[in-house]
Amino acid sequence: MSQLTLSLDTPLMVRDGRGRYRPADADQILEAARKVIEQKMQRGAEFTSPVVVKKYLRTKLAGFEHEVFAVLFLDTRHRLIDYVEMFHGTIDSAEVHPREVVKQALRLNAAAVVVSHNHPSGSPEPSAADRALTQRLREALGLVDVRVLDHIIVAGNATASFAERGLI
Fold first, then answer.
1. What span, in angstroms and rounded, lies between the C-alpha atoms of 79 and 93?
2. Backbone angles phi, psi at 26, to 5 degrees
3. Which of the four, 34, 60, 132, 154, has the lowest number of CB atoms within 10 Å?
4. Is the dihedral of CA 5, 41, 31, 157 positive or negative?
C-alpha cells in the first residue's frame, strides 16, 4: 500500500486559466481531494465497513466552514447509488427537512442511507438536536422501508458514528 506524504516545504501546484502553475491554496487542495474521492467511489462502489464510510465522508465533508448535511443513498447490498449534499447551513447549524430526504430516497430507489454532516467547530460529539434529527429521519424513512444505517458526524479528521455508539 502506498503512503502519501505531504511536505509543506514544496507547495502543491495548480494550473491557472493561462496554463501557468502556481501554489494551490487550501480550498483548491480540498476541492481536488473531493474530485479524487468521487472518482474512486463511483456508483456501485460497496461500503463494506464503517471505516470505509467514515474515510469517504471525511474526504467529502472536512474543511467546510459551514455545516453541510449529506446523504449516501445505497442499494440493498449497500452499494453507492448517489452521494448528495442536501442542505447547507451556517457555522453551527443546518436546517434539515426529512421530507426532502424521503423524496430523494424514493427518487433514487434507495434501500438504505447513511446520513452525515460536519461540525466546523472541530468536535464530533453529537448534540441533542443531532440525536432528535436522526430519530425523525429514521421514522420518516422507515415509513417507506428505507433503513438508516448510520449517522456520521465529521469534524476535521475526527468522526463520530451513531451506529458504533449504539445510538441507532
1. 29
2. -60, -40
3. 132
4. negative
User: Which one, of 68, 129, 73, lies nearest residue 101 by Cα?
Assistant: 73
Q: Which residues of the chain have pLDDT under 50?
A: 1-5
3-class SS string, the chain: CCCCCCCCCCCCEEECCCCCEEECCHHHHHHHHHHHHHHHCCCCCECCCHHHHHHHHHHHHCCCCCCEEEEEEECCCCEEEEEEEEEECCCCCCCCCHHHHHHHHHHHCCCEEEEEEECCCCCCCCCHHHHHHHHHHHHHHHCCCCEEEEEEEEECCEEEECCCCCCC
Q: Are 61 and 70 in contact (CB under 8 A)?
A: yes
pLDDT in tens, 60-79: 998 889 999 999 999 999 99
> Are 93 and 87 in contact, with CB atoms under 8 Å apart?
no
